[in-house]
Sequence to fold (270 residues):
Amino acid sequence: MAYLAPTEFVTKMVDAGESKIFMSTRDTLIRAYMAGAILALAAAFAVTVATNTGNHLIGSLLFPVGFCMLYLLGFDLLTGVFTLAPLAVIDKRPGCTWGGVMRNWTLVFFGNFGGALTVALFMAIIVTFGFTEAPNAVGQKLGVIGESRTIGYAAHGAAGMLTLFIRGVMCNWMVSTGVVAAMMSTTVSGKILAMWMPILVFFYMGFEHSIVNMFLFPSGLMLGGNFTLMDYFIWNEIPTVLGNLVGGLTFVGATLYSTHYKTAPKRAMA
Fold:
């Protein structure tokens, strides 16, 4: 059958987490770099569509194409390894340690950042003709996105930080659901359909994704956005990373593992 039962795909989740912990540094960085670049290109595509059509929903409907491509090509996002890698340690797989998890997370973070930053630079060049002209309509949109999502949060103080964190949690609840959903099917079409739904939800709802933001905010700074690098890190990237970690690990990884892999004893018959 094309559909795998929960007990089957949760086993695949643990196996995937184990493989990521033991992956070589070279392969981890290459796969993370490409994942960050492809997701950034998808974000640029979605912003372009939304700007040209005036309809955010259309851009959101098309954004998941990037996530589907990077997953099918076997590349890794930080949001995904946040959910998968710890399961191998929790399951006490031989040789899997929290040190190995942290190594994987660190390498994927920097790989994703490098890929997203590359596309941010490319897009800034495209929308300004090599920084010789003012940004076009898409460039202007990229320039202002970061303002409301940094100094906009900062204006609300602690409440803004809480909102940012929760948006990060909600984001990776959906994104990691997309990662897991792809494991439910053995067909390419089934994987794509299963991934598309939660990714659409996260993007249209404006939740905070650490890797998408690695593209949006650096490109915004290159295109004259009215915020600083410190605004980006303190009032977006760091809280978003923490929110993504909590959302993916608790609402997806731990819950599926605990109820489909390490099930509680069944109640005795009365």
